[in-house]
Each structure stands twice: as structure tokens, then as C-alpha cells.
Amino acid sequence: MNKYGLVKTIPHGEDEIKLVGNAMTFILYKSYFGRDLLNDIVGFAKKNTSTATFEKIKTLGADADLTNLTADELAGMNLDNMEFDTEFILNFIAALIATAKYPEKLDAAELICSIPPHFVLDQGVIGELLDFLSLFISSKKKPSQPQPMTAKR
């Protein structure tokens, strides 16, 4: 079955772990953990970003692509001192794995136990997760709405 959305394959020893992020991820996250994924992403961002960093990001504008910043700009934002909420990270990875394996229904505890412990702290894996987070919270420009026509008399 072809998967749509963002698909990433992360090597793990001789195996690979496939992560898929799309609309189904929101449904599965809610089903498994009883929480709203978007609210958890926003809470994670607020909790793990200093006020100064948040203000700096706001000054860049809503459409800023952080991947285009220079190393000096990123260093000035103090992103290295972020503390990660490991429960959210594990739940998020589990939902991405569940989306990749959908329609197979997996046990939540089994999903979480299948995540290699080093994934929570691995910089490469966290970088891949940030791609998924940015996919879910990126601002899309809405097409302009046609104006209603009024009849001339």
C-alpha cells in the first residue's frame, strides 16, 4: 500500500524503522493516547523553547524557514539547550510507526516498546522528527476566496 504524506526510513542496525506522517497520524495519536496531537505539538514547542528563542522566531515571521538560517543565527537562538519531553517524543514516534503500518492495528505499549531507546536522544532521529513537526504546523497559504457577486440594478 502506498503511503502519502511525509515518509522517512530510519536505519536501526540491520533493520529500518519506517515513519509516516499524514492526516491519519492525528487520528491514530488520539486513538492510542487520548490526546490531540496538535495541542501536544504546541505544548511541546512552548515547554521546550525559551522565551527569548520564541521571540526571536516570532521576529522572523510566521513563514520563516529555520533551515535557511545561518549557523550563527541558529546558535544565537540557543536551540541546543532545549529539553525534550520524552513522553511526547515516544508517543509521537509510536503514532508515526502506527501510521506507517496502518491498517494493521498495533498495541500502544507494543509500539512504544519497539522504539529503540537511543531514538529519544539521537540527534539524527530528532532532526527527522522535527521535519514531521514542521509538516504538521507549517502555515499554508489559503487560496483567496472569490468575492460574492452582487447583482446590479
Features:
153 residues; mainly alpha; two-stranded antiparallel sheet; 7 helices; 2 strands
Detail the topology: elements first, then pairings:
Layout: E1 6-12, E2 15-21, H1 23-33, H2 37-47, H3 51-60, H4 71-76, H5 86-101, H6 108-113, H7 123-137
Antiparallel strand pairs: 1-2
Helix pairs in contact: 1-5
Strand content is 5-15%
Q: State the assembly state of the protein chains.
A: single chain
Biggest beta-sheet profile: 2 strands, antiparallel
State the secondary-structure class. Answer: mainly alpha
Q: What is the tally of helical segments?
A: 7
Shape verdict:
globular
Uncertain regions spanning at least 5 consecutive residues? 139-143
| Number of E-type strands | 2
Rg calc: 19 Å
**Mean pLDDT, as a whole number?**
77
Sequence of secondary-structure elements: EEHHHHHHH
Cα-to-Cα separation, first versus last residue:
57 Å
3D architecture notes:
It is a single chain. The chain is mainly alpha-helical and 153 residues long. A hairpin with a 2-residue loop joins strand 1 and strand 2. It has a two-stranded antiparallel ribbon with strand order 1-2. It has a domain of 98 residues. The radius of gyration is 19 Å and the shape is globular.
